[in-house]
Specification:
Elements lengths: L7 H14 L6 H12 L4 H15 L7 H36 L6
Helix pairs in contact: 1-2, 1-3, 2-3
Length: 107
C-alpha cells in the first residue's frame, strides 16, 4: 500500500494502536513495527512518521505542526512576492527621479 492511498481512518487507528501498545513493548520502534505488521502497512518508517506527526500535533513532542508549516510556506511565498514588488518600485522610483533631475529640452 502506498502511504497516500491509505485512508485517514486507518492512519489514525494505527497511531492510536501504537500509543496503546507502546507500554507493552520494549521500545517505541518495536511497538510501531508490530502495529505496522498487524495492519499491513508496508513500511514501518511510514507509521513512525505518522506517530511523530501526531505527537507534534498534540503537543506531546516539540516541532512544527502541519498547519504551522503550511502557514510558514504561505508567508514565505508572500514575502518573496512583496520583495519582488519592492524591487520593481525601487527601480521605477530611481528612473522617475532621474527623469525629474534632467533639465528640460528646448526646441
Amino acid at each position: 500500500m502506498d502511504a497516500r492511498t491509505i485512508p485517514r481512518e486507518l492512519r489514525e487507528r494505527a497511531v492510536r494502536m501504537v500509543a496503546e501498545v507502546k507500554a507493552d513493548d520494549p521500545s517505541e520502534w518495536a511497538a510501531i513495527a508490530a502495529v505496522a505488521q498487524k495492519l499491513g502497512i508496508g513500511s514501518t518508517e511510514t507509521l513512525r512518521k505518522w506517530v511523530s506527526r501526531a505527537e507534534v500535533g498534540s503537543g506531546a513532542r516539540p516541532g512544527v505542526t502541519a498547519k504551522e508549516a503550511g502557514e510558514i510556506r504561505r508567508l514565505k511565498r508572500e514575502n518573496a512576492e512583496l520583495r519582488r514588488a519592492n524591487e520593481i518600485l525601487k527601480a521605477a522610483s530611481a528612473f522617475l527621479a532621474a527623469e525629474l533631475d534632467r533639465p528640460p529640452q528646448r526646441w
